[in-house]
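Course exercise 7: structure representation. Students receive a sequence record and must write out the corresponding structure in token form. The form below is the worked example handed out in class, using Sugar kinase (309 residues). Read each field label carefully; the graders check that inputs and outputs are placed in the correct fields and that the protein name is recorded exactly as given.

STUDENT ID: A-19
EXERCISE PROTEIN: Sugar kinase
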Amino acid sequence: MSSTPETDVLVLGGAGVDTIVYVPELPLPLADSHLIRPGIQTRAGQTGDFVALGLSALGLRTHHLDVLGDDPEGDLVRALHRDRGIPLTAVPLAAGTKRAVNLVGPDGRRLSLYDATRCGESDRLPEDTVTALASASRHVHVSITQPCALALPALRRTGVTLSTDLHDWDGENPYHEAFALAADVVFVSATALDDPERTLRDIAARGRATEVVAMAGADGAYLLADGELTHVPAVAPPAPVVDSNGAGDAFAAGYLFGRLTGEPPRRCALYGTVAGAHACTVPSTRTDAIDRATLLARAAGPTADPATH
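STUDENT ANSWER:
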């Protein structure tokens, strides 16, 4: 690994395009048709894009690596990174750019439909590219999108610390497990976990993680660090909640910002809850992330846990 890294965080995977559909309620009532307002919009931004945007907005030097198609969706992703000044290394993908449809209810909940045809078993991120970019970085955040799992051995050989977000893992799916056991910092949604503490401790016991976080939305988060489980209270959103899309990605970006600026895990988790709460106030059709000054001000505010000061 370079003694003077050029990049703070390399984000691996998770580049794509979402079509946002606001629906009257979830589950969507069965009907021949629905009138949709404020309309249907397609924009660049999936999990890796949002993490990269969040990190960059917080002032960290960020580079994004993923597969992209030579198609209009890929052009949207390239334009997003160009407009936000985030370096992007795009490996050509014959099947086309990853895409999804997000159904968003009035309360901000969402249902995502991912196109599973966009990456095949033979697709790869070139190992020399992965190694070169990771070795020039202080940290690597790995999305669970294909073909990132195949890059994990090369990433580990670089010696760079890794993080990953398992999203709504149930604690058993072996695909997610490979990421969970390879990363030094693991994020997971508590949504599908019957016993979050058991899952966090299992990840720490069997893998490399020194910090494991279960994100629980309005209930805050659960942090396992140094063998101690801590509940991190939620932070009140600064505006009405309109959309939960991207909240987990924002949490990860806020947490990693804290970690890379030398903060202890409990403080990092506070940053994550602040960033996640902010994301819930941003409509899916936008790709805005909290900036460093706002994050630090809100983390120091009266709603923050005094134990983290």
